[in-house]
Amino acid sequence: MKSTVEHLSPTRVRINVEVPFDELKSDFDRAYRKLAKQVRIPGFRPGKAPARVLESRIGRAPVLDEVVQEAIPAKYLEAVNSGELRTLGRPDFEVTKIEDGESLAFTAEVDVRPEITVPAFGELSVTVDDQEVTDEDVATQLDELRARFGTLTGVQRPAQQGDFVVVDLSATVDGEEVEEAKTTGLSYEIGSGQLVEGIDDALIGAAEGETKTFTTTLVAGEHAGREAEVSVVVNSVKERQLPELDDEFAQLASEFDTLDELKDDLRVRLGRVKKMQQGVQARDKVLEALLASVEVPLPEAVVKGEIEAREHDAVHAFDHDEARFAEWLAEQGQTKEQFDTEVREAAEQAVKTQLVLDAIADAEQLSVSDAELTERIIYQAQRFGVSPDEYVKRAQQSGQLGAIFADVRRGKALASVVRQATVTDAAGNALDLDELFGEAKSTEETAAGTPAESPAGE
Fold it and tell me: In 367-396, which positions are buried (b, 16+ CB within 10 angstroms) versus exposed (e)?
């Protein structure tokens, strides 16, 4: 087999392949066996007719078609591997020559990963927020804790922000009742934002037994994106009474004997949370700085695929009804052209990120261990509320296991970049990245495929 590669652009190539017929013997054998099972020839059992007899019955053309269909993908992969090409997406095949008994020639146009020159990671410098825990932070945590131990008491006054009400809800669209929006005896905290937009304004000032109506845009269900008239009946109004902030409360809400001990513990916990937030911020800002420093030609077919996936997700909530989706965009004050622009920008950024991190992973010879892949699968399964086995089964059926592997590898590449960058807080203090992400393992361990795991991979 002979193959040559033409570079059509920095992100696309044409592979020219010519295969002598003597290399296709196994493909012809498979084709004869397959076709023989499909054709009944008197005097022969299914699948047992000799090749010359089969050809005399069905002709040579079906055999050649079957050989071509089988041989081209296999020979394409052979050409890709011999040329050490890093292909992206599916190729476009074209048969350019079939000389029976002599040779088969075809071309394959496919996107490839462009050559990317990344900067010295030590030159990247970002600043993240301070991780100081303030008295206000502790007070907020205490208020949230008190709310958990608060009691609800009925009141004979109009509802206020923060009150709890028990309501009956119903809604109509163009005069027709929306069945899935109907409910009774629903408990709701005014101001929590857990129900439809506009309900908080309608409930404030409403008394027990009063009915309020308002209009809102439905965001889910059959009528998603449509304007609905909502009726809410207030059955009861209750206010939350919070316990006194003292040692007795500390003993009730925690394992501590005094309020000061509880405050100290909250301060320590908040410090850990803020360190984690610093880590996430460092990861995001280093990635932003990295992408800003690199020029990457983007494969248009890959970008197009990303755009189509994002558009599919956007209209999925509207049952893929383009008219309803357009109505929703108009209500959000956005045109279809603006939406398309935003989707393309996001898609291009996502593709650029993947290409850059893949290039770094290759350069640093990063691999993914079974333990790391399993950890990601368990994490994702918990996010979607399914068992790890069920998640793996779904990923296999949708062909997403490779994408999961790639995401873990890209996360490790980004973690490596973050470790080498300069990260300081707002006060100018250099951050201890080992404290944020865990200690990095040795070069020997990394080369062996067991580099340190890091939250930056999440």
Answer: bbeeebeeebbeebbeeeeeeeeebbeebe
